[in-house]
Amino acid sequence: MHVFVTGGTGTIGSAVVAELLAHGHTVSALARSDDSARALTGAGAQVLRGQLADLDVLRDGAARSDGVISLAFGSDYSTGEALARSIAEEGAALAALGEALLGSGRPIVTVSGTPWVPGRPSTEADPAPTDGPVGGRGRSVNALLELASRGVRATAVRMPRTVHNHGKGGFAGLLTDQARRTGVAGYPGDGTQRWPAVHALDAAVVFRLALESAPAGTVWHAVADEGDAVRDIAAVIGRRLGLPVEQAPQESFGPFGPIFAMDQPASSAHTRQALGWRPAHPGLLEDLENIQP
């Protein structure tokens, strides 16, 4: 299968590109910079130059492919407005990619986030949130999944709060970055709230399996760790960086503050059973030991 990938040089995307190539697929990937283009070429992928906002480029990439994996998302989370712009850009991109596949029966796999459900781990059967700081992402993914009725094998892989590799990535990576800036390994709330996690190399397998065989309109959870306590995450970060570990005000974490403070474990029992997925790489707390002082 020839697969068009957006976001192919990120923590998740680079692992997905490698996973696809290792299993006999060919890949063309969107590159917005010379550095991204070099990284993709070095990995063995073809390059399609453009930005996520270049909707005609996205349509062309999808039209020339046997399937699409959409992973690209903006990197500016500094303010609520910046986050909203990234969500809107992603939504427009998904709509354009889906439009290019109408009536073809070809697959598109997009990325989403695991939902949060009071009192228990969320499952694949729980709906995505469509309100709150990231509600726009849920609405965009739902719109894509609805294209299953219009001849698109659209599926979504929900990612946990931290997708990690060598101690980097996800919400835990944001905590590490903030600790380096502030000199304190801080955590919001009382730190008992749980965040799910997955190693990027394990997550990549779920994307490949969904692309190859998942039925249209289905949702999957790439979750290896059902929920690590945020205080435990901060403790490893503090120890690795030689910094004190302290509770910090929710507002000090910017637009992610309300999300950081939530207890949000997630299950992947259905994904493991239905797709035969078996995570094989280190869990988050073990992987955070790779943080360099």
Automatic annotation (TrEMBL):
Pfam family, one: Epimerase
Disordered: annotated span: 113-136
Family annotation (InterPro entries): Epimerase_deHydtase, NAD(P)-bd_dom_sf, NAD(P)-dependent_oxidoreduct
Domain NAD-dependent epimerase/dehydratase: 3-216
Entry superkingdom: Bacteria
Protein name (record): SDR family oxidoreductase
Source organism of the structure: Actinomadura luzonensis
